[in-house]
TrEMBL record:
Family indicated by similarity: Belongs to the methyltransferase superfamily.
UniProt subcellular location: Endomembrane system; Membrane
InterPro entries (alphabetical): Put_SAM_MeTrfase, SAM-dependent_MTases_sf
Enzyme Commission number(s) from the entry: 2.1.1.-
Chief localisation class: membrane
Designated name of the protein: Methyltransferase
Signal peptide, first to last residue: none
Species of the source: Linum tenue
Chain positions covered by the region annotation Disordered: 111-136
Length: 628
């Protein structure tokens, strides 16, 4: 009897006449935890009643061998033996860890739909097998930690790696925006919890949040006065209101975007142009309104005297990140964006031998566009016009090789604390030495093979399998069977995104996903951008470049085991608590060992925790904050 894959619901249903639903659900919910490569093939049809032979109730071993049923008896014996071993592990609370990976691509032992093999049940009711698996799992008690609130004038908006005042004081220079770059505390910062602003409320839902937010959630009125002539933001009663204006588009983004496309018709928003970078984004109205045109914009600005502009953007539900073009490369891969936009942004592109402009060239896809708009007065500014003249149309025909082309060995390295380079990035080539083509138009690029897909044997099959599993897991389990109020969700972060399958599975829903590729894992960020999604590199042993209370849901898939080998999970838990909004969620797909460790930490933070089928952790943050 050969036993094949239980992941196919259609195969299981085809054998319903053999009443195998209990065996299927039992093997899937228990045996698969040991990663046994079981496979079930179609069984022989039942023998007609008139052809069956009667057999005595008891047989000797010799009789069994003579009757040629010894194989069946051996199979039954082994089956009972495996059942006994399984119940032993379950009763003792032990589990065998599944192999680690950043996505589901090599986890064929874990079914995308845990209930795929249950017998049919009436709509709205659970099968007996599912009810058994939904039984309450014992969870560990909360860790005994005496939490304290963060203190100081910046406590409410504290970002550990950007607000390290002691490190900033010791800088030798601030000429190249060094004080706006990351300076993470070493060792890890003191474990404090960020307090809430007075009067904090649950953020307004999307799309209403694009046009207004609660004043008390981001109580920074300086921009109202500073940018009142540019139609950025107004205060009206208990709200900040965003009219959709900006430094260069007082009449709104729609008219401004239409003017750009009319000027350069090949810029076809939402088809040819899908992923964009807005440098010096202000309150991100440019990116917010381009969402209507199916353009996903990464809005970027530093934490500077323009109070909380990125916090405004994320509170509105618009993709954004704190970043600056200083002395280090941006945390994006080479050849990522279809278009880069800068409206009167205060960046000295020609500084330090033109390194800021060369950095834009690195992250801009070959054939992509750099849209730099400014007021007419800049036409006569010698420094600004020089930037355009210094951007040659053909590298090889330049009279001088300055700046030089980058070394081929420096290509495709992970951009994390990497100094800016004074060289021109080379064009990306495929395995045949040809320049990689532009992706197909949106939305087809989401499902087509990415143009930067590695050519190694088996990678394409792994990528396709990963997409199928995430599609099934998200639609059948995440959206339907977990205790998550999805209508309250807008900003999502995938802490280890892999190929972006989780984000792709949510593409038709009113969410956006920040795909994070950990710097110590396989670099797949180019693939994510090729698909028309956005993301960054990050090390989860450090804090993320975002304000507190900016994401509704953080998601991870088998991240924490390897992460725990490099840093303390308590510090990671503090960072998760900082990022997630009150009422927001942490969704973890992992082994029960890691889930139990996280549960103890989250309970100490007063999060509510529920475990689903011993492999999904759903934790929700509330308004609790420690007192002084």
């Amino acid at each position: 009897l050969s036993l094949p894959s239980l992941s196919s619901t259609s195969e299981t249903e085809s054998h319903s006449h053999l009443n195998q639903s209990f065996i299927h659900s039992f093997i899937q919910s228990h045996f698969l935890r040991f990663t046994y490569p079981f496979h079930l093939s179609p069984l022989s049809p039942p023998i007609p009643q008139h052809r069956r032979r009667r057999r005595p109730a008891a047989m000797s071993l010799a009789r069994l061998m003579k009757e040629r049923t010894f194989g069946l008896a051996l199979f039954l014996f082994l089956f009972v033996f495996l059942v006994s071993i399984t119940f032993f592990f379950l009763s003792s609370g032990k589990t065998v860890d599944l192999p680690y990976y950043f996505s589901l691509s090599d986890r064929s032992d874990v079914s995308a739909d845990p209930d795929a093999n249950d017998a049919p049940v009436p709509p709205g009711k659970d099968s007996p097998a599912l009810k058994a698996r939904k039984s309450n799992f014992p969870t560990p008690p909360a860790l005994d930690i005496a939490w304290r609130p963060c203190e100081g004038v910046m406590a409410v908006d504290f970002i550990p790696c950007l607000d390290n005042t002691e490190a900033i004081k010791q800088l030798q220079s601030r000429r190249h925006m060094e004080h706006r770059e990351r300076h993470c505390p070493k060792p890890a910062p003191l474990r404090c919890l960020v307090p809430l602003p007075n009067g904090y409320k649950r953020p307004l839902p999307w799309p209403k949040s694009r046009d207004m937010i609660w004043y008390d959630n981001v109580p920074h009125p300086k921009l109202v006065e500073y940018k009142k002539e540019q139609n950025w933001v107004r205060k009206e009663g208990d709200h900040f209101v965003f009219p959709g204006g900006g430094t260069q588009f007082k009449d709104g983004v729609s008219n401004y975007a239409s003017f750009i496309q009319k000027t350069v018709p090949i810029i076809h928003w939402g088809r040819q142009i899908r992923v964009a970078l807005d440098v010096g984004c202000g309150v991100a109205s440019f990116g917010g309104y381009l969402l209507d045109k199916q353009v996903l914009t990464m809005s970027m600005a530093p934490k500077d005297e323009h109070e909380a502009q990125i916090q405004f953007a994320l509170e509105r539900g618009i993709p954004a990140i704190l970043s600056v073009i200083g002395t280090q490369q941006l945390v994006f891969p080479d050849n990522a964006f279809d278009l880069i936009h800068c409206a009167r942004c205060r960046v000295h592109w020609d500084a330090d031998g033109g390194k800021p402009l060369l950095e834009l060239n690195r992250v801009l896809r070959p054939g992509g566009f750099f849209v730099w708009s400014a007021t007419p007065v800049y036409r006569d500014n010698q420094r600004d016009t020089k930037v355009w003249k210094e951007n040659p149309s053909c590298y090889e025909k330049r009279p001088q090789n300055n700046p030089p082309l980058c070394d081929q060995n420096d290509q495709h390295s992970v951009s994390w604390y990497t100094p800016l380079r004074g060289c021109i990035s080379r064009l990306p080539l495929d395995k045949e030495g040809k320049v990689i083509k532009w992706p197909v138009t949106w939305p087809y690029r989401l499902s087509r093979l990415p143009v930067s897909m590695p050519s190694e044997l088996g990678v394409v099959e792994q990528y396709n399998a990963d997409n199928r599993r995430w599609t099934a897991l998200v639609s059948d389990t995440y959206l339907m069977k977990l205790n998550i109020s999805w209508p309250s969700v807008r900003n999502i972060m995938d802490m280890n995104a892999g190929y972006g399958g989780f984000a792709a599975a949510l593409i038709d829903l009113p969410y956006w996903v920040m795909n994070v590729v950990p710097v110590h894992e396989e670099d797949t960020l180019n693939i994510i951008y090729d698909r028309g999604l956005i993301g960054v590199y990050h090390d989860w042993c450090e804090s993320f470049n975002t304000y507190p209370r900016t994401y509704d849901l953080l998601h991870s898939s088998f991240l924490f085991k390897r992460l725990s080998e490099r840093c303390d999970l308590i510090d990671v838990g503090v960072e998760i608590d900082r990022i997630v909004r009150p009422g927001g969620y942490l969704l973890v797909f992992d082994t029960i060992e890691m889930i139990n460790k996280l549960t103890a930490i989250l309970k100490s933070l007063h999060w509510s925790v529920k475990i689903h089928q011993a492999q999904y952790l759903v934790a929700q943050k509330d308004l609790w904050r420690p007192t002084s």
